[in-house]
Amino acid sequence: MKYRFAIIDDESGLVVGFCMNVIGLIGELTIETYEKIIFEQFTFNEEFMESMTYTKQSLYNLQIAILNDEGEVIGTYHCYLPEPFKIQKLDNMKRKANLKLMGSLETRLSPVELRLWNLLRRKHTLGKNLWKDFSEEERVGWLNVVRVHSMYNKSSKQDKQGEVYTIDGEYVSDFLTFFIALGEAINEPGGYYGFNLSSLKDCLCGGFGALAPFTINWRNPHYFLKNYQENTD
User: Fold this and answer.
1) Beta carbons of 26 and 5 less than 8 angstroms apart
2) CA 160 to CA 154: how far, in whole Å?
3) pLDDT at res. 187
4) Which residues contact 74 (CB under 8 A, 6 or more apart)?
5) 3-class secondary structure, 43
6) Cβ atoms 149, 121 nearer than 8 A
7) Residue 155 has pLDDT above 60, yes or no
8) In angstroms, rounded to a whole number, what is the distance separating the alpha carbons of residues 93 and 105?
9) How far apart are CA 6 and CA 48, in angstroms?
10) CA distances from 223 to 69, 143, 233 (A)
11) Reported confidence tier of residue 158, pLDDT bands at 50, 70, 90
12) How does pLDDT run across 209-233, given as a tens digit for each residue?
């Protein structure tokens, strides 16, 4: 069975366990409100069970991790618990069951974003300009997904300088598609390099694959310029 999600303890970094689905991960974000989050078909990780045997630790803040088809973490969403979660009986940890917690998510996914994660779950090379036929909602979701994916893998990125990156302007018609194309040009399909000017400034500081100076070769910029002029006239 391939699990789709994992829970990671923020304090120890241990993987608490795995599940097939997370009810409560999708929806509108509610500020300063704790809601029930259900981890369906949850099973505890053996390493965590061994740790609990000796430490009797409680869980405070968690990371809900997205897993790829190989069981590797490819992105996380933080979940804050209003009070520590304690395991009362270790015997209860040995069987698969729905785990119910009260918590507050830092970010919630849209249904579109959850579906788009499946494209990154597969262990294969993504095609270039995969997003060109996406709706605007899907493009917004894609930029959110690759941003989270990039933040998780940030420490493993090797920044390059002096490179030339080419953007295919045929599919770049606005700032949204520009940033999707920029991330793809610098970090390959599924890559990220900012979602607005402020985040672009952060990326330029390092850790996102490219450090200034570098060159952007923007082919066919007239698609963007034409659309921009039409929308500002």
Assistant:
1) no
2) 14
3) 93
4) 66, 67, 68, 117, 120, 121, 149, 152, 153
5) strand
6) no
7) no
8) 24
9) 12
10) 37, 20, 16
11) confident
12) 999 999 999 999 999 998 888 877 6
53-56 own/partner pairs: CB under 8 Å, 24+ apart: 53/90
Residue 111 tokens read as 């249904």
CA separation for the pair 220, 145 (Å, rounded): 27
**Which residue is listed with tokens 């310029």?**
225
- Token reading at 227: 């659309």
Phi and psi torsions of 39, nearest 5°:
-100, 105
The per-residue pLDDT for range 24-72, each reduced to its tens digit, is 999 876 666 788 999 999 999 988 888 877 776 778 899 999 999 999 9
- With tokens 């099973």, the residue in question is 43
Helix (H, G, I), strand (E, B) or coil at 60: strand
3-state class of 195 per DSSP?
Answer: coil
Tell me which amino acid residue 3 is. Answer: Y
Q: Give CA–CA dist 65/62, Å, rounded.
A: 9
Q: How many CB atoms lie within 10 A of CB 232?
A: 6
E-only strand ranges, the chain: 5-9, 15-19, 21-23, 35-44, 59-67, 73-85, 97-105, 160-161, 164-168, 210-211, 215-219
What pLDDT is stored for residue 34 in this prediction? 84
Nearest Cα residue to 203 out of 163, 166, 151, 162 = 151
The per-residue pLDDT for range 166-186, each reduced to its tens digit, is: 999 999 999 999 999 999 999
Q: Which two tokens stand for residue 210?
A: 């490219």
Angle between helices 111-121 and 136-152 in degrees, nearest 10: 50
